[in-house]
Amino acid sequence: MSLHVVIGFGPAGAATARLLAEQGHTVRVVTRSGRSPEAGIEHVALDATDPERLTEAAKGAAALYSCAAPPYHRWTSAWPPLAASACTAAEATGAVLVMLGNLYGYGPVDGPLTEELPLAATGAKGRVRAAAWEQARTLHEQGRIRAVELRASDFFGPGVTDGGHLAARVVPPLLRGKPVSTLGNPDAAHSWTYLPDVARALVEVAGEERAWGRPWHVPTGRAQSVREMVDRLAAQAGTGPATVRRIPPAVLGVASLFSPLIRELKEIRYQFDRPFVVDSSAYEAAFAVRATPLDEQVKATVGWWRERAATTR
Questions:
Q1: Of 14, 111, 130, 161, which is the most exposed, with the fewest CB atoms less than 10 Å away?
Q2: Which residues pair with 206 in a beta bridge?
């Protein structure tokens, strides 16, 4: 088995590192603060924007997974040095650079999102994510690195907490039988990417040479509106039909004065005000990972939140 280095230990980084460890690989996780060791995973404290230190940590690695998630309001300043450092480390070590991306780079689109769409983001966060991939793709085409990007829609599932639109703001109130408040149109079709599927896809493409050099969409099930997902979660939880309320724009406007996160959400409101549907058929035609059946996703998510609530009382 080989060494795999994961940058970041948020939901996606943690799921990827643990999956690799389960498969018997040597896993090294890079974060600013470090963590206590866990089974099969070495945690290293360093600033991943420092290319020399990141290169040192990645020496001998088969793959380098860029799964870091800088604070949302610092994306425009944090992503460029992080992306550049990851590219430098990949070039110096020969590790395959596996980038976890998102869908912001496309900007507002009419119809399903496919990998063939141009990166035409109109907002700063979308442009900075697009630029990170373009940098890696250019280096790949020059033969200097081997790179691939996996793009996911909004994360959903065990391990997804404050950053998820179907997570901390939705599931805990739902389990208590309380109303749920949501951003945008609760009846607009929306794609949700299950977190364990993200990890499985990242690990799969790291070892698939034919995947390298282009972006892929993580296998994602049929789009479901927020209301449909909340109804499924409530049914699994046994808390009965849930009331779903759209947060009024005026309330969001006031909240944005005090919350950097809410202020930054303005750029991607289009994703929730109208259908936002991901097409992952290209990945599914080429590789083995498939989206986990929705019933299994919902069951695992409710179970995880219930266990979390029991251990934090």
A1: 111
A2: none
Amino acid at 127: R
Q: DSSP secondary structure string, 132-188? A: HHHHHHHHHHTTS--EEEEE--EEESTT--TT-TTTTTTHHHHHTT--EEESS-TTS
- Going by C-alpha positions, the residue among 4, 14, 22, 18 that lies closest to residue 65 is 4
What secondary structure letter does DSSP report for 38?
A: B
Q: How would you write the pLDDT of the chain (313 residues) with one tens digit per residue? A: 799 999 999 999 999 999 999 999 999 999 999 888 888 999 999 999 999 999 999 999 999 999 998 888 889 999 999 999 999 999 999 999 999 999 999 999 999 999 999 999 989 999 999 999 999 999 999 999 999 999 999 999 999 998 889 999 899 999 999 999 888 999 999 999 999 999 999 999 999 999 999 999 999 999 999 999 999 999 999 998 889 998 877 776 766 666 776 777 788 889 999 999 999 999 999 999 999 999 999 999 999 999 998 887 6
How close are the terminal C-alpha atoms of the chain, in Å? 40
Does residue 164 contact residue 176 with C-beta atoms inside 8 Å? Answer: no
**Helix, strand and coil percent figures for the chain, each rounded to 5:** 45, 15, 40
Q: Tokens 């808390």 belong to which residue? A: 239
Partner residues linked to 287 by β-bridges? none
**Distance, CA of 67 to CA of 45 (rounded, Å):** 15
Name the residue type at position 187. Answer: D
Pair 4, 21: CB distance under 8 Å: no
- Rounded distance between C-alpha atoms, residue 217 and residue 190, angstroms: 15
> What are the structure tokens assigned to 284, written together?
């599914």
Distance set, CA 114 to CA 24, 50, 87, 103, 105 (Å): 34, 34, 25, 10, 12
User: Taking Cα atoms as reference points, which of 270, 70, 272, 106 lies closest to residue 183?
Assistant: 272
Per the CB < 8 A criterion, the answer to whether 153 and 142 are in contact is: no
CB 231 within 8 A of CB 296: no
